[in-house]
Amino acid sequence: MTTRAYAAARRTLTIADKLYEVNWGLVLLIGLIACVGFAMLYSVAGASFSPWAGKQMVFFAAGLVLLVVAAMTDIRIWMSVAYPAYAISLVLLVIVLFAGHTALGAQRWLSFGPLELQPSELMKIALILALGRFLHGLSVEDISKPLKLLIPLAMIAIPAFLVLKQPNLGTTIILVADGISLLFLAGLSWWWIAPAVAGVASAVPLAWRFFLHDYQKARVMTFLDPESDALGAGWNITQAKIAIGSGGLTGKGYLQGTQSRLNFLPEKHSDFIITNFGEEFGFVGSIALLLLFAVVIGYGVQIAMSARSQFGRLVAMGLVLNFFFYILINGAMVMGLIPVVGIPMPLVSYGGTAMLSVMFGFGILMSVHVHRQVEIPRHSGGII
Amino acid sequence: MPLFDRKDKSRYATFTRRTLMVSGGMTAVLAALGGRLYQLQIRDGALYRTAAEDNRVNERLVAPPRGRILDRFGIELANNRRNYRLLLVAEQASGGTEQALETIARVIELSDQQKRRVLRDLAANKRFVPVVVAENLSWDEFALINQHLPYLPGVQPDVGETRSYPFGSELSHLLGYVAPVSLDDKKGDDDDPLLDLPGFRIGKRGIEKAFDAEVRGEAGASRVEVNAYGRVIRELSSDPARPGKDVYLTIDRELQHFTDQRLGGESAACVVMDVQTGDVLALSSTPGYDPNFFNVGISNDQWKALTTDDHKPLINKAVSGEYPPGSTFKPAMAMAAMQNGLADLQVNCSGAMQLGNHLFHCWAWKKGGHGHVDLKRGLQVSCDVFFYEVARRLGIDKMHEAAVALGFSGRTGIEIPGERPGFVPSSEWKLQRTGVPWQVGDSLSAGIGQGYVVATPLQLCTLAARIASGRAVAPRLSHTVGNALQPRPEAPPLPFTPEAIAAVQAGMNMVTNVPGGTAYAWRIAEPGFEMAGKTGTAQVRVITKAERANGVKRDAQLPWNLRDHGLFIGFAPVAQPRYACACIVEHNAPPHPQVQVARDVLLFAQKRDVLGLKTAYPVSAADAAPSPSRT
What we know:
The structure holds two protein chains of two kinds. By secondary structure, chain A is mainly α.
């Protein structure tokens, strides 16, 4: 055991120790992916830093500071702020429903002077922290007890419902997926899981028959056969597939993508940015980017496995899965595998809030790494 | 409290196990995304590449300039003039489009109706699409706009091309006109993409329609890169339009002009042909209409005026008007008589012919008839009784055969559309049509060009040309299309003996040049320019028995539309025929304007000859192949 690790075990990490312990390799990988984002934003703006690439770099720089600060913050502090953060996020979600302003038909934003805040982004991290803290105090046997299970389910359901009302289906799905995953990782019994899966599976046709509005059905049908409405609702999916597919093996070359340059791509700088990457760098580039994401995820899983506290493990995996769900939903959406829901590609799509929230998440993940030797008793609530 | 109790250990194991499961799941899902990438980019890559190109590249048609139509001396009868236009681009009009229109209206005249149309067009198009504000501006208006351009943001002066007919109504029936493509035009097998081009115009009548394929040209294409909103980003490549071919007509514009002037405001037609070649030198039908109206857009009032005029300005009477030829049919009957052994036929005309209990009158029955008449004199005085006798002896089928050989009862094949075939009956036809067998009385009516017989002025001119040349010449209007001579088969000799032709020519000479001839008063007296001819009258109404008993009213006493048509056919010079002419003036009042017109026109044509003008055809028959010399 090295001196530093020994020191860590004794919970007396100095600032220098923490800086050393920050997972700079992971930071490098994250930076690499962010650079792909800069390059793409520069490309879709017609080889220009404005209006997106330049700002995105500033967002990334700010995110980097946030990441390091979060990484050096003691994991027990994160544990103690979990519930208050969750409570604040919940209040903000309620406020946004009544006072938020509308963008693209949904109420998602709150303004604080010049600052704009998307409470749903905050909630994703707050939920992971809060669930981590709650599940930290439960044994494997406890989790599967109906009464004990009710609380985390409510913790997931309430914000999910509020976000759904905005309406923001994509974030709702991610919140639910994050929460259920954490329950699963914490040891939820298969006796709960199996019927739940069966129940959801049988609910789909029923929902289709009784609960979905005609326009919602139409949206699903459009997704299943976008060419049937190639100039209407199917436009986004069709054009995105054309962009990616036309990249071929090696792509059209950097700045040579015609789909985005000629505005055939919808939301080319945000949710559909990755289609431009596929068009310009082809299959080879896309697979490379996919591998890069996979390595980051693998890194995160390894961090989770090496943490000594259940809180740290759960939070780390929760953040990794959150990151993974972003990639999954955005990737599947732009490639026409699932209907269009508004989920950006993390680190690549343009957007300050999304960038900061992803970097903040990675910061907490690294805090778990930095403080991996910290042991937190099951009945402890952190250091506050 | 121990750091790791038993429960902690168990949930650590659970967490590790389940994390591995989750990781496996994530790996599988990422692999699935990779598989999807393979599907899109490798398996279907070519498909999507094509789709992306289709998105990006837009083929735009480039309209070719329409070929000109020229007369034999190279005078442009139809050409393209510059069309000064004013366009407005909404997104560049900084003060708004309505403001822009107000400003334009201060420079040039702009009606409220025009403004409303422009605003409607602007609303229907994307903001970067130029919309036409005004067309066919005068040079002064156009210059004024250009001068004020700095104060007119969004306004684009533009010079387009539009079809123009410099001689207006004079050649309207001959040239036809161009107009926007209609749905009917697209129904045929013409699948030229140009037809779908907005504002494209095609030939609707006359030469414009007949040679539309040649003068239209071929569309060029411009491959442009467009963005998702259809805005042109840049031109990728362009294939210039191939201009339409020029069509040289056999028409002599000066002669046509003269003919038109001579016909004046009458409802009339006049055709002049070269008897050797069939070249049509003038083809007049009056009144005409201004073909430029149809191109620019004809107003309701103008259209109403054209369709309700009793002089029928929209009908090309020269090729579409079918008239009873009257006595101008007699030369054809004389040919038939000569060919069928009646060369020495002598008839005593007492003013009428008795057939059964019906009396067939000669036009001179009041004067007591023509007395002793042979074939030449029959033509000279236009004796009806002589030709009743010819008809009675020949029978309708021999008359029909001769008439067809001389160009009746069948289209001549002139290039312009709408030609009517005329008609000469046969015994078979009447039986089939009416169930009643042919009667001798029918033959008698046909023998003087009445009854069932109808012919177009063009057919009558062809008759004169055939008698004059002895050959089965056919009229034609086009000499050269582009650099290619129009095919012209050598005219075969007529199936009549030279004696027959000579006798009829002599009879027609007597009509004009021997005292007592029906057109002697209107002869050409200048030596060397004399014409031969035949007069005719086509009855518009049937003269009843009662009328005849009470005395037929003089034509001039009748309302205009009940008066007879006056006809004349002729050729000149008599010694060596070169020009044939047919002229009809509808419902004419004496003294026989049609004869005077034909006389003046034939004299004018011969005088033109004296000038020794050279045709301006790009190629001539002599260039193409040495043709046998003609006399």
